[in-house]
Write a structure and sequence with these properties.
It comes from Bifidobacterium choerinum. With 334 residues, this protein is α+β, with helices and mostly antiparallel strands. The protein has a domain of 220 residues: Phosphatidylinositol 3-kinase Catalytic Subunit, Chain A, Domain 5. Helices cover 35% and strands 15% of the residues. It is built from eleven helices and 14 strands. The strands form five sheets. A five-stranded mixed β-sheet has the order 1-4-5-3-2, with helices on one face. Strands 6-10-11 form a three-stranded antiparallel β-sheet. A two-stranded antiparallel sheet has the order 7-8. Helix 5 packs across helix 9, helix 7 packs across helix 11 and helix 10 packs antiparallel against helix 11.
């Protein structure tokens, strides 16, 4: 069982963080800088939603799924602060370094060089991310094309985000670390996984799903990507995996060769039901995530992989994914 950290008395780090999904503060603890992510209020959202999202738990679970796959990811712990369960994310940017988001790198491209036939658009105040434009940037922006493992990371996230139903991996949710030396860029570890695993689902909706296998199957297959096609329509990732895109097929093959269903059971079992008198994850939540993710693996990813595996390039199972020189398994400085 993982220990829930007590961050109630942790001093502020004077580091500040962006993003719109809930309150974020920086603290220091155990000799490290930590970003604490609070659950976001949902009062502005329509429909039947809980008062607060379970984003801290989703950040923790999604990140540990990435870790189980061997993909460099930020170190996350569940913690308590201000009487709430939060997700403590260890800051992977050292002094003298800076995180450069993919969106900032894409801004180097002239709009005439973007292959999307549609003009820039926004949805609910956020810029639409066209898959064709993102793919072009991987090869046309020197900082991206010159950094080892960028293409593989893009598609590894595409597949893994489909598995955890992270529908918000837009251009600000991944990037490179600028080490402050000429041409010294490395991939940042995967971060910002909080908008995954149906983090706005109410307890009543979870109960109905657990009582109805058809609802579990529907939730398992109801996955969309943050990326859009040239007509501005959200891409269905499971359908796209069948498109024959070689980079995507290889990423699916890497996922399937790395993932074991027992990984999920171990991750879920490590989360306590309660800590410091607060609910962390009740048993119905635990069972819901177990049923939905196992169904997604068995009913979506497995048949797609079986149909496309003959097209994948052989994968070295002994090699870590996108190893970062000078970094540990979480992408931290050694």
């Amino acid at each position: 069982m993982d220990r829930v950290m007590n961050m109630e008395g942790a001093p502020l780090s004077r580091r500040y963080y962006g993003g719109q999904a809930g309150r974020k503060i920086g603290v220091t603890a155990d000799g490290y800088n930590w970003l604490l992510k609070y659950p976001a209020a949902t009062r502005r959202l329509a429909g039947s939603v809980p008062s607060y999202t379970t984003a801290p738990l989703s950040e923790y679970l999604g990140s540990h799924i990435y870790s189980a796959l061997g993909i460099p990811v930020h170190d996350t712990r569940l913690a308590v602060r201000d009487g709430r369960i939060v997700c403590a994310c260890r800051d992977f940017v050292a002094d003298g370094e800076r995180l450069v988001e993919f969106a900032q790198l894409m801004n180097y491209m002239d709009e005439d060089d973007l292959p999307s036939s549609s003009s820039p658009d926004t949805t609910h105040g956020r810029r639409i991310v066209y898959l064709a434009d993102a793919r072009a940037a991987l090869y046309r922006v020197p900082e991206l094309s010159g950094t080892e493992g960028v293409v593989e990371r893009f598609w590894d996230m595409f597949v893994t985000d489909a598995f955890i139903r992270n529908i918000d991996r837009d251009n600000t949710d991944w990037g490179l670390i600028d080490h402050g030396r000429e041409h010294a860029f490395t991939l940042a570890p995967v971060y910002d996984n909080g908008n995954s695993l149906n983090n706005k689902k109410t307890a009543a909706a979870i109960g109905r799903a657990l009582d109805d296998p058809d609802r579990i199957r529907q939730d398992a297959l109801d996955v969309r990507s943050c990326y859009h096609d040239d007509r501005g329509r959200p891409i269905a990732p499971f359908k796209y995996m069948r498109s024959g895109d070689d980079d995507c097929v290889q990423a699916l093959d890497r996922f399937m060769q790395r993932w074991e269903p027992d990984h999920l059971d171990d991750i879920l079992a490590a989360v306590p039901e309660r800590a410091y008198g607060l609910s962390v994850m009740d048993e119905r939540q635990r069972e819901y995530h177990r049923h939905v993710l196992h169904a997604r693996y068995e009913q979506a990813l497995t048949p797609i992989w079986q149909d496309t595996a003959t097209h994948a390039t052989p994968f070295d199972m002994t090699a870590p994914w996108n190893a970062i020189p000078g970094k540990d398994a979480h992408g931290m400085n050694r």
